Please model this.
Amino acid sequence: MSKKIFLFFMAYVIASILAFFFLLPLWWMISTSLKTNEQIFIFPPSWYPDPVKFSNYSEALNKIDFFRYFRNTLYITVMTLIGVFFSAPLAAYSFSRLNWKGRDFWFFTILSTMMLPPQVTMIPLYMVFSRISWVDSFKPLYIRFYFGPPYFIFLLRQYFMTIPTSFDDAAYIDGCSPYRIYWSILLPLVKPALITVAIFVFLNTWNDFINPLLYLHSPNLYTLAIALQVFKGQYEVDWSYLMAISTLMTIPVLIVFFFLQRYFIRGIVLSGIKG
Amino acid sequence: MSSFRKVQAIAGIVCAFPSILGFFFFVLGPAIASAYFSFTRYTVIEPPEFIGFENYKALISEDLFRVSFYNTIYLTSLGVLSTIVTSLVLALLLNQKLRGISIYRTIFFVPSITPLVANAVIWTLFLNGKYGLINYVLSWFGIKGPAWLADPRWAKPALIIMGLWGIGQSIVIYLAGLQGIPLELYEAAEVDGAGIIAKFKYITWPLLSPTTFFILITSTIAHFQMFVQPYVMTQGGPADATMTYVYLLYNKAFGWFKMGEACAMAWMLFILVIVLTLLQFYFSKKWVHYEIS
Model:
């Protein structure tokens, strides 16, 4: 028994040491964002800001139009979300509960496109968007999501499969149309999965770098990710400003995470276990 | 009844229609176009000119292409290996019935969702040779840390270490896998006198093999796509040490307007991913066990 207690103790110690290292970069981001420049360029580094220089934030916000980039990123997120909510559950419904010829063929075709590296389609898509003058607008960043993004179709289909078909059958007997069943019965039932999808959309948009880099050229259209990168190029040594902006950019993600943690975990597990 | 079937069949096609359209517009069409471009000399200014396999031949004999390929294989193999080992160890730790486990889980998970560009900014300072925290921590143990991102030999290991910081999702997937293993198996093994190592070897590892396999595939694909870190942190340097495949592809297309070569690179990447995945599936028969009874 004492061996077991010892192992428990060791597990704690190791977990705590590793947790320390996992927290360090985030702590470093926050503490650097509050330091004076003299404090940043010293060795050994100081663990916490002293004095605490909150004005780094207001100074950084004067240099970079943070709220504009925040709005841009949010706008793309919302437009993406509308597209995903329109097309993905509808397709997932069709692929999981409606019988039609060629259904499985199309499901696996669409599913298999997840294997295709995005770089394969990147250049021709860019040409097309450039020809219709969509480059330097938000449209190329979200339009694809109105046409069935495979990953979300897959995720939602997995969820639809867990709902007993007796729900549909009963409604059919009562004379409901398939559309009515989808809208009034099934969609409310998959709400938890929709929240998971919404979280993933939010995270992806907040994280996306290469697409905004390709399509958004005017500074007033930048997303937070692009703005931070440009800012890094301009203020390479102003670490406190860079960290202040990084912190501000990370906070929304943390807020969403802490409020919706269980949907996060479930979504990852859902895509992991059954994939 | 047959009219009911008809209604369902029509509804099925109607509901899937946007997605089928999406397949043609956003996948099949562009993929065919890029396959065609890969056989052309295409600089955007002039129309594409068919040159057969010239792009592919030129790429294979190009030094920068080879370097980027080597770098990507290096980053992928070591990155995937260290991801699997570390996330499994952490998941095993978290799977002990420790108090406050959810706090640890949160701590390990959060870095995997923080924006990659912000991470890149943090780690650029973190890995700084002069006043970075990593070298300071190393100095506690009497180790003089390298210049990391500024040193061609240490830039790739630096990116791999940074990658370890973001393995939270693999940990969560492993944890779910661990919780799916019936406890009776361990109890039975203990009755038979099995120790920790035997239990891991004969129960945990085999029963987790589908999870490991999933992480292996997804993590390999993700590593092949590495772009943000070199773009933001090193611009592919020093001395092309972090020139990744996708970063080179991006430069070819949008920096140097060699669209044909870039498309050829994209198709080679696709073929490589397919071959690797098929190989992993083939070998998985030897070590992945799907039956749980």
The longest strand of chain B covers residues 40-41. Chain B touches chain A through 93 residues (CB under 8 Å). The beta strands of chain B are 40-41, 49-50.
